[in-house]
From TrEMBL:
Keywords recorded for this protein, A-Z: NAD
Molecular function via GO: nucleotide binding
Family annotation (Gene3D superfamilies): Dihydrodipicolinate Reductase, domain 2 (3.30.360.10), NAD(P)-binding Rossmann-like Domain (3.40.50.720)
Location of the region described as Disordered in the Swiss-Prot/TrEMBL record: 395-416
Signal sequence range: none
InterPro entries: Gfo/Idh/MocA-like_OxRdtase_N (IPR000683), GFO_IDH_MocA-like_dom (IPR055170), NAD(P)-bd_dom_sf (IPR036291)
Protein name: Putative dehydrogenase
Compositionally skewed regions (Low complexity) per UniProt: 395-410
TM helices/strands, residue ranges: none
Record-annotated Gfo/Idh/MocA-like oxidoreductase N-terminal domain positions: 58-143
């Protein structure tokens, strides 16, 4: 892809940043990623010498907000007219951090404009639409990427290292706890946007978290082959940003079991209605024949087989053993940068020098499928098998419910 060059002949890639006034758009994508990349002089390419600089144009609905952000961060370009930005060759990448509901429409326009596209998850509100976006992007021959930020967390990177080293032996199971108390908004303002709690506005913890769980599980342990989930709305009424009560129509907690390729069982709780009694807001315990690990966003501790205590169940005696003390903290041994920024750098390298990118719209579609089938599992009260998703919509596995007759072929192929 042809890049712009600055007056100093430095190659520059122009990035349309849509939804930059939002929580994710502002903090993670603009400030912590693109501005941090600009500050460091650009993205270092494979030759180890060339740096591609980034030039953002902020896009949103409120000119005043955009002007304020642009002034605050010394950004030259902003507009409320997405179509104009898309029609302008100065901008090679379209990046989307809009509310989920608004995403697919904007991405379709960006595909039609031939831009490379980088987007927040979930890529669309339905699997059918997510798969269609993947197909359209493929047909248009445009590069596409979806945020997989959790994989870049220091804790998960350390976990990956343990897996690659063979530490676990045969991995048996994964148990994950994600969540914290999100205030209802009455006597203390909620710390998440209110649309998250309205199904009609694209909210819900399954839609929000299952796309993350899909890529975490498939990249670390194996493809998700089935899901059983129970979604609940624990707090039926909340108060929005303007102080108005509203009906919380979306699930705010989900309890799920995933069966993975190779036989690993993962059980993950996701909740905005739980109080934290862990070291971090997300924690996974992985148990294997040769050892176990507990990882969070940053931390990672292990217990190998040959340092495993031998508890004996005795309800008559208080157990004085310090189980926490049996674990060994894994050292960092590396510099882990903000994961959003690292993934942005990889995507920019994908765009300008064809570096590999596995986290594309098809990966995004698999995440949307897991969310959709998780909700279906909850509604129908049963385990649901997941097809292998391909761009063609083909499936090598039968997507059949465990206790139900085979689903019709159309249902397996994503042609729903
Ligand atoms: N990767 C992660 O860890 C992570 C975390 C939270 C949210 N997200 C995803 O990021 C996206 C944004 O979430 P957020 O928490 O930043 O939300 P937010 O409400 O803070 O921001 C949403 C943005 O979309 C804009 N917007 C809202 N309605 C719109 C419409 N109809 N048309 C055009 N623009 C509109 C808003 O002005 C704002 O800029 C969501 O898709 C969400 O799933 C990802």
């Amino acid at each position: 892809m042809a890049e712009q060059t600055t007056q100093h002949d430095q190659p520059t890639v122009g990035i349309i940043m849509n939804g930059v006034s939002g929580r994710m758009g502002y903090r993670q994508h603009l400030v912590r990623s693109i501005l941090a990349i600009r500050e460091q002089g650009g993205v270092l390419l494979a030759d180890g010498v060339t740096r591609v600089q980034v030039e953002p144009i902020l896009v949103g609905r409120s000119e005043a907000k955009l002007a304020e952000l642009a002034a605050k961060h010394g950004i030259e370009h902003y507009t409320t007219n997405l179509d104009e930005a898309l029609a302008d060759d100065r901008w090679q990448i379209y990046a989307d951090f809009l509310v989920t509901k608004a995403r697919a429409k904007a991405i379709r326009k960006a595909i039609a404009a031939g831009k490379a596209i980088y987007t927040e998850k979930p890529t669309a509100e339905s699997f059918e639409e997510a798969l269609e976006l993947a197909r359209l992007a493929e047909e248009a021959g445009i590069k596409n990427g979806v945020v997989h930020d959790k994989l870049y967390l220091p804790g998960l990177q350390k976990l990956k290292r343990l897996i690659d080293s063979g530490f676990f032996g045969r991995i048996l199971s994964v148990r994950g706890e994600f969540g914290y108390w999100v205030f209802e908004g009455d006597w203390q303002p909620a710390q998440r946007p209110s649309w998250n709690y309205r199904a009609e506005d694209g909210g819900g913890i399954i839609v929000d978290m299952f796309p993350h769980w899909n890529y975490v599980l498939e990249n670390l342990f194996g493809r998700v082959e089935s899901v059983y989930a129970r979604a609940v709305t624990e707090i039926p009424e909340r108060v929005d940003e303007k102080g108005h009560p509203y009906a919380a129509t979306a699930d705010d907690a989900a309890y799920a079991i995933f069966e993975l390729e190779g036989g690993v069982i993962a059980q993950l709780n996701s909740s905005w209605t739980t109080r934290v009694n862990r070291d971090e807001l997300v924690e996974f315990q992985v148990d294997g024949t040769l050892g176990s690990a507990v990882v969070g966003l940053f931390g990672c501790k292990i217990q190998p087989r040959n340092a495993t205590p031998k508890p004996v169940w005795n309800p008559d005696l208080a157990d004085a053993h310090d189980y926490d003390g049996d674990w060994i903290e894994v050292p960092t041994n590396d510099v882990f940068e903000n994961g959003f920024k690292t993934q942005w750098e990889e995507f920019i390298r994908h765009v300008v020098e064809d570096a590999p990118n596995h986290y594309d719209f098809l990966a995004g579609a698999r995440g949307v499928l897991l969310a959709e089938e998780g909700l279906r599992s909850s509604a129908e009260g049963r385990r649901i098998d997941l097809p292998v998703v391909t761009l063609e919509g083909g499936s090598t596995d039968a997507a059949t419910a465990s206790d139900a007759p085979a689903a019709p072929a159309a249902e397996l192929t994503g042609a729903r």
